């Protein structure tokens, strides 16, 4: 259950087969170094080169997300087809920055791709670059439009690296000394995505002169590009998603119980939130994750 088509194609190699080569199909999220855990959510490798996929399997369904990402296409390309309920036709640059998205997104690869996406927390991006999150929300921008010459040199070095491990090493060697100098000031004691988000309210209350609720909310929106209410909704949805996936795999999904356990008012509330973030009902989403290659992003281990 929840085995992507790429993994099925590779599931039964011949006994004499050599170890998996760099250029074989791959869909995986790789964890960052511990020193970067509060900066980098993960490194997502997506490679469909050599895999016979039907056109509909070359779609990519992404949920709404609080995260930013740097995206490299080493081979192939993508076009954004839908952002929430809006149909669009936006070509994705070969090297781009993806901002936090308040709505689900559907893109399409016309052919095979070899790509790397480095997912970053918004506060880390702002602390490292000074870029305002409000300028990135719901946008995909050329990398050079957002980052300076040092970052651009790093990005070019990633293009020149020979394999996934070296590509990630280039990124992390660049980020680590810069992040360690800012980490304690920017996100004290926050070592993961969830803890980063939970720490925002405390930091906002302790920052600046005023500490009224309205001032705290304004600071959080300035740091992340989204209001605290939306952050809480996405965090709750993420935790609910992994809880429901585990229950689904055991054959024990009870949507009413799942809703209450996740802090929703009722099952209808859960369904509305899942549809808002993913574009599908919970049941339809779980079925799509199991059957459709285009929902590969949901199958990656966090």
Features:
HTH_AraC, alpha+beta, 18% strand, 302 residues, 3 domains, single chain, Jelly Rolls, Arc Repressor Mutant, subunit A, HTH araC/xylS-type domain-containing protein
Could you provide a short overview of the structure?
By secondary structure, this protein is an alpha+beta fold. The protein has helices spanning 5-9, 122-129, 143-146, 149-160, 164-180, 183-186, 193-206, 213-224, 228-250, 255-261, 267-278, 282-291; strands at residues 26-30, 40-47, 59-62, 68-75, 79-83, 86-91, 95-98, 105-108, 114-120, 140-142. The longest helix is centred in the C-terminal third of the chain and has 23 residues, at 228-250.
Q: How would you describe this protein?
A:
With 302 residues, this protein is of the alpha+beta class. The protein has 3 domains: 25-184, Jelly Rolls, CATH 2.60.120.10; 193-226, no CATH class; 229-289, Homeodomain-like (Arc Repressor Mutant, subunit A, Orthogonal Bundle). Helix content is 42%, strand content 18%. It has helices at 5-9, 122-129, 143-146, 149-160, 164-180, 183-186, 193-206, 213-224, 228-250, 255-261, 267-278, 282-291; strands at residues 26-30, 40-47, 59-62, 68-75, 79-83, 86-91, 95-98, 105-108, 114-120, 140-142. The strands form 2 sheets. It has a 6-stranded antiparallel sheet. Strands 3-8-5-6 form a 4-stranded antiparallel sheet, with no helix packed on it. Helix 7 (193-206) crosses helix 8. It is globular, with a radius of gyration of 20 Å. 33% of the residues are buried. The model is unreliable at 1-21 and 187-196 (pLDDT under 50).
């Amino acid at each position: 259950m929840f085995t992507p088509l790429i993994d099925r194609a590779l599931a039964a190699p011949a006994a004499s087969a050599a170890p998996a080569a760099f250029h074989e199909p791959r869909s995986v999220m790789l964890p960052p170094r511990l020193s970067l855990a509060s900066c980098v959510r993960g490194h997502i490798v997506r490679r469909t080169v050599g895999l016979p996929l039907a056109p509909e399997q070359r779609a990519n369904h992404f949920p709404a997300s609080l995260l930013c990402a740097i995206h490299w296409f080493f081979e192939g390309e993508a076009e954004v087809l839908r952002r929430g309920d809006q149909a669009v036709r936006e070509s994705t640059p070969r090297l781009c920055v993806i901002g936090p998205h308040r709505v689900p997104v559907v893109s399409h690869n016309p052919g095979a791709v070899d790509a790397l996406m480095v997912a970053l927390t918004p506060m880390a991006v702002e602390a490292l670059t000074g870029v305002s999150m409000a300028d990135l929300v719901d946008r995909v921008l050329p990398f050079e439009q957002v980052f300076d010459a040092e970052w651009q040199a790093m990005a070019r070095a990633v293009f020149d690296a020979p394999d996934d491990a070296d590509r990630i090493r280039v990124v992390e060697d660049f980020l680590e000394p810069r992040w360690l100098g800012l980490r304690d000031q920017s996100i004290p004691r926050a070592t993961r995505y969830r803890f980063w988000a939970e720490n925002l309210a405390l930091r906002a209350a302790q920052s600046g002169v005023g500490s009224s609720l309205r001032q705290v909310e304004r600071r959080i929106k300035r740091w992340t590009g989204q209001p605290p209410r939306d952050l809480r909704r996405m965090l709750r949805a993420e935790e609910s998603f992994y809880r429901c996936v585990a229950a689904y795999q055991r054959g024990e999904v009870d949507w009413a119980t799942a809703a209450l356990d996740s802090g929703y008012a009722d099952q209808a509330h859960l369904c509305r939130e899942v549809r808002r973030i993913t574009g599908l009902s919970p049941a339809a989403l779980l079925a799509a994750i199991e059957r459709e290659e285009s929902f590969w992003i949901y199958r990656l281990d966090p």
